[in-house]
Design brief:
heterodimer, A: 6 helices, 44% helix, B: mainly beta, Rossmann fold, 2 domains, 6-stranded mixed beta sheet, 5-stranded antiparallel beta sheet, 4 helices, 46% strand, globular
Amino acid sequence: MRSALLLTVLTSAVLLAGCPKRDAVMDVPMNGGEGVGAGAESGGLDRGGVQEGQVVGGEGAGGAGQMQGALADTILYFDYDQAEIRAEYAEVVAEHARNLGANPRLRVRLEGHSDERGSREYNIGLGERRAQTVRRALMLQGAGDDQITTVSYGEERPAVMGSDENAWGKNRRVEIVYGN
Amino acid sequence: MTRTANHLRMAALLAAVVLFASAAQAELTIEITEGVADPIPIAVVPFGWTGSGQAPYDVAEVVAGDLQRSGLFSPMSRGDMIDRPSRSADVRPEDWRLLRNDYVVVGQLQPQAPGSGEYVIQFEVINVLNGQHLLSYRQPATSRNFRAASHKVADLVFEKLTGIRGAFSTRIAYVSVDGQPPKQRYQLIVADADGENPRVVAQSAEPIMSPAWSPDGGSLAYVSFEDRVASIYTQLLRTGERRRVSARAGINGAPAWSPDGRRLALTLSQRDGNMDIYILNLANQNLTRLTRDNAIDTEPAWSPDGDMIYFTSDRSGGPQIYRIDAGGGSGEQARRVTFEGSYNARPRVSPNGERLAVVTLDRGAYRIGLVDLKRGGLQVLTKGRNEESPSFAPNGAMLIYATQEGGRSLLATVSIDGRVHQRLGANSAGIREPVWSPL
């Protein structure tokens, strides 16, 4: 498994070298070995490196190992139809920003989510808006632009099932994922 | 290699994620939850068989089922029939009238050359109230397409009696999800409009969303997160061949095929997350930007003539529907279309271009609404709590949409007059994002 991952990272690096960075993803061929099920995971690692134009290698594990205190909090919850970061997360955001600023080789992926209500593609928009709010807050406090990627899953990947205030509140979130 | 050429270079991506045309486990069942108060009584008499032995297929059963599911007809039970004519000459209108029918459908399944596997479905429609002979038709069939041919018969009967083109021969695509978070399986499924023959055309452990039919009904465009970011794929249904047509930084979402099939309207975000509507030329990958606004602009839908794009934007605060010239002329202003209510999103244009189906917030619930583009005004068609993804039947007579019941998502249809309601449930998985195929 480890060598397979290494191979995908190397493949990304080779493709990257020959392409303008923004378009590199267009050229990554998909083969049978990257099929879904098992493939989603390995394909994802591969893609993360390509999209940012950097191969981060094993740094993700290093970043995860340093987490403590506020850094251990990696999920920010949001109010209904809001993309503002709640005051209670100020310290969490500040710690992650400091961590990224102090370790410029760290990479973080911000995954934005919405609750299930309303239309799906508009909810992709709400999740993106939340992820971008967190991105800007991290950058204002010392993180570098190239350290952060965002993705919005909208309502497609709920943290919990259910159609009540409790479930909706747990699903409106941004997850900070190190190592991508 | 130039940058443009690099844009163009796209591998034709073959079925990595795709188990093409494997039978889906989730069979759909359809039930009518609300019909018209006075459905038209009709007798679809079991068709005669002019060959030897047993008839190879029960055409009348499929026809009666289609007519009943439309909600506009109440086919007579076979047990109540006292006669089984297969030609109009043998139909005694007064008998069927006494049994309270308005119309009778009779027919024969006729084998053609022995061993050819070819058949003709000869059928007739009679108005038994006045004895008038309304339709006589020969529909070809083969032993492999009896069901499809029977839907065609139902289409013709339906159109003759209602003046509305039948949509029983069409298909629906939808997304099926099973498992509990975070381990869920997403499948893109295509089934006949009556829920039969569900086939998995793509599946993934990461979300699949926003399927859209090509105007020729041969391909689907959809969004897949299989690479842990959103990309738009097109997939030829016949072969399963896939192309990744948009995998730019940020969001790639909400694909909508132009009426000429050459372009996709879609939503892209810059790295700063600003979502706008673009038009992608599928042949040369050229992008035209239609909107330029800090708000969320998404969910584009083409007018049937291809001149206009309707879309969702929250530039005024909450989401509302706007429209803009699809040509992308510089300085083109988007015009707001919806004004009733605080939330109107995800427009779909009716086949005649006169109405929009939308998701609308109605007294605290997300429901399916119909906007009259000529006269203005919004009519709420449904009664659920969290409904979404309306899609017009290609004859414009019905909408299919996603709803929830007992914590599970399922599909439902409603006639555009709001009178006929059906529910399409799968046995296990949650199903959503239905899209009705073209005719």
